[in-house]
Structures are given as C-alpha cells and as structure tokens.
Amino acid sequence: MEWAELSGADVPAVVDLAVRCLAVDGGLSVATSPGFLGRRYVGEGVVAIGAFRDGGLIASGSVRDARGSTVVTGQVDPSWRGQGTGGALLDRLLEVARRRGGGLRVETESLTAEADGLFTSRGLRQTFAEDVLRRDLAGVLPEAVLPAGVEVEEWDDDNQGDFFEAYGASFADRPGFPGWSRDEWVDWTAGDDDFRPRYSCLARSADGSPLGFVTCARDFLIQVGTVPPRRGHGLGRALALTALTRMRAAGEPEVFLDVNVNNPASAALFESLDFTPVARRARYEP
C-alpha cells in the first residue's frame, strides 16, 4: 500500500471509490457526485490523502476548513475494511487537522458500527446524527391538501427574505440552531447547482405572513418547516407533498431527505409518507 497526497486529477478515482462505498453502506447519491466530492477534496486550504494498492485508490480522506472548524472526512473501499486501513487513514488526517488548531470535527456520510468504534477509539464522541430517508416517486402520492386560507409560491429573488423568516421561526427552538444571517442561510440553501427553485415553496396566510416553507435540491428535500402556531394542522405534510409532486412531474425517480435523530415528530411525518431509512450521517468531535 502506498500513501500519497491527492489533487484535482484524482477526483474521478475518489468518485469511483465513493460509488463502491455507497453500494454497501447506503446513503445519499449526491455524496458520490464530482461536485460534492470536489468541494471536499480540492480547493484552498484542503489537504487530501489517498491510499493506493496496485495502482487503484482504496482509501481517501481530506482535511478542510468549514465555517470556523477543521473538518475531517474519509472513506475506505469495503473490500479493504477490517485490515487497519481506516485507522491508518484517520490517524494521518487527524495529525494534519491538529496541526491547524481550532475546532476539530469528523464527518461521515454513512455511519457504520465499525466507524463508530474507530472514532471512539481515537477519543472522539458523536455530537450530531441524522437519518437519511428515501422514497420512490414511481408510486402513488397522496394529494397535497393545504389548510384553508393558505397559499404557496415558488422561491424567487424577491421572497428569499420571507423564506428566511419562515426558516427562523420554524427552527429557532431546535437544538443546535446555527443562528445564521440571511445571506449565510440563502448561500447554504441555494448556493449549489442542484438547488431547485421550482420545487421550493413558501406558505403564506391571507395577510401575507410566512407560515412555513420547503426548500429542495434536484432529488432532495433540504428543509421543511412550519411556524410553531401552525404545527399539527397538516401544513408541513402539504408542503412536503407539494414538493414531491413537482419532483415527480419533472421526472425525478426518487427523493431523499435527512431527519435529525432527536426529531421524532419529523421522522413520524415522513414515515407516514412512505420514506424509509437508508443510512445515518454523523459528526464527531474530541
């Protein structure tokens, strides 16, 4: 086995490795896209490392800066697990990260019991986890029935502030609410090429007040939220179904979303819409 730093020329090999991991571990298909992986393996301040055997990439990982934290992520070919490759990769990445100082975070797109044991053995503890849920869009969808007096409109340049207002009111009471500015949230939501304004909808009352929202990427529900006074009245369900109906009409075969493990109400909503868990994403810190 040979270890080497990776460059942009290695992204196709990183993508192929991610596809092999996804086939065994499950998770989000977007996590195997060149754009997703390119942002993690290439760029200013990024250090990427790979392990090669007989000319093929069998493990890869990177260290990057993200919103004031030093973030470590990696992957190991399923056929090379259980032989110390993951531990060797993690140790190399942690060494790079600790030289930088500051907050350290390790992220995984598809947590396994073995990965959890490895992270724990290195003095890391899980600080965040969310389940990845999937739904096939080929089947029948329930009708999206909006509560009386509620209207929806698509995302555009003029209503981003109202989307942000609905987001803040919907999520401010959730643990770990980041407190982003409008620009930060809009960039996080819509800054990717996969973002779909057509699927993303804002719910308003008769007087124009924002009541809830759904934001979407190509085959992914980014966020669904309702303001506290309107919870329990079917608005979140209607917004989700509105987005799913638009996705299916556009030809999307499937849809994914993330649900925080400490949000059983949201998990119950999407399970009632025939979503099933396929993986768990997680973060670890010292």
Search tags:
8 helices, 286 residues
What do you see in this structure?
Helix 1 crosses helix 2 (34-41). With 286 residues, the chain is of the alpha+beta class. It has helices spanning 11-25, 34-41, 85-100, 113-121, 160-171, 182-190, 235-249, 264-272, and strands at residues 2-5, 47-53, 56-66, 69-76, 103-108, 125-136, 151-154, 201-204, 210-217, 220-226, 254-260, 276-285. The relative contact order is 0.15. It starts with a strand and ends with a strand. The protein contains eight helices and twelve strands.
How many strand segments?
A: 12
The strand line-up of the biggest sheet is: 1-2-3-4-5-12-6-11-10-9-8-7
Report the β-strand fraction as a percent range: 25-35%
The level of helicity is 25-40%
Number of helices: 8
Radius of gyration: 20 Å
Main β sheet profile:
12 strands, mixed
Summarize it.
This protein is of the alpha+beta class. 33% of the residues lie in helices and 31% in strands. It has a twelve-stranded mixed β-sheet with strand order 1-2-3-4-5-12-6-11-10-9-8-7, sandwiched between helices.
Describe the secondary structure blueprint for this structure.
Elements: E1 2-5, H1 11-25, H2 34-41, E2 47-53, E3 56-66, E4 69-76, H3 85-100, E5 103-108, H4 113-121, E6 125-136, E7 151-154, H5 160-171, H6 182-190, E8 201-204, E9 210-217, E10 220-226, H7 235-249, E11 254-260, H8 264-272, E12 276-285
Parallel strand pairs: 4-5, 10-11
Antiparallel strand pairs: 1-2, 2-3, 3-4, 5-12, 6-11, 6-12, 7-8, 8-9, 9-10
Helix pairs in contact: 1-2
